[in-house]
Amino acid sequence: MPHRPPPSLSRYLVEWYRPGLTDELLRETAHKIGCCAGELSAEGRTVDLLLTLFVPEDEVAFCLFAAGSPASVAQVCRQAEIPFHRIAEAIESAATGRCVENGDAMDPLDQPHLKGENHMKAVYKILAIVVAAQVVLQSMAMVYAVAGQGKWVLEGGVLDAAVIESRAFVFPEVLGYAVHGMVGTMIIPLTALILLISSFFTKVPGAVKWAALVLLLVAAQVTLGFLGHDIPALGALHGFNALLLFSAAIYAARLARNGVASQTADPDARLAPRT
After folding, report:
1. pTM attached to this predicted model
2. What would the 3-class secondary structure string for 174-195 be?
3. Are strands 84-90 and 10-17 parallel, antiparallel or unpaired?
4. Which among 39, 114, 127, 130 could disulfide-bond with 195, CB atoms 3.0 to 4.6 Å apart, if both were Cys?
5. How far apart are alpha carbons 143 and 201 in whole angstroms?
6. β pairing state of 99-101 and 84-90
7. Tell me: the pLDDT tens digits for 123-178?
């Protein structure tokens, strides 16, 4: 059980991303943090480690400190080699683990605003995965059509301007071209736009930035696709941009799963107050 430090000390919650953290490593890490906190306290800057938690599903660890300043907590984390994501001042309450609404006990996790945030986080993750899946579908459709076209030509078919302009289904695999165009010019842009809208409600750091990047790459993908008909070199960039789009969508989905953004490089930036 965590001990009670002097009430004059503020509480600070430290959050860091740590994939693959086991129970044994968590105990070792907590011991190391405690030793570093003890060393700093011996120098006159009191820092107490109150609690250490790890959420395996999100691969996120939390430490609750009692200290005189966030700078002291940051120094302990750096000495313990903890790559923390952020330090936030916390408020301690004597309230129990259940709340009462209209006279009935209610689990805190069942509170409407928390449920809403979790739902939007799930929506964001699903939409990001759908964008990545649609990019894969586009690639498959294009290769399917090109392979079918090559087979048709080898069997005696003649591909000329008249055939292209007729838009006739002269070989079955030409459907791949239609799927590629429809998904790329209509479905993916719409999905990416909805992803960006949902990002404002997820409460996940970095969600808006990555959703905006996905939408930007989609716009570039559509533009390169159209220009590639006149400038073949841009067709190569069209394929390369598809890889970037796929990667960005997958990262956005993983971001929603972890619920944390990439670590800030500047330690002082982590201590900056949020506005």
Report:
1. 0.56
2. HHHHHHHHHHHHHHHHHHHHHH
3. antiparallel
4. 127
5. 37
6. unpaired
7. 999 999 999 999 999 999 999 988 988 888 888 878 777 776 766 777 888 888 88
Q: Which residues pair with 100 in a beta bridge?
A: 105
The residue assigned the tokens 């044994």 is 24
Residue 29 backbone dihedrals phi, psi, to 5 degrees: -65, -45
Which residues fall within 8 angstroms of residue 18, CB to CB, at 6 or more apart?
Answer: 54, 59, 60, 61
pLDDT tens-digit readout, 48-102? 888 888 887 777 888 899 898 889 999 999 998 888 888 888 887 655 555 454 5
Tell me the three state secondary structure of residue 222. Answer: helix
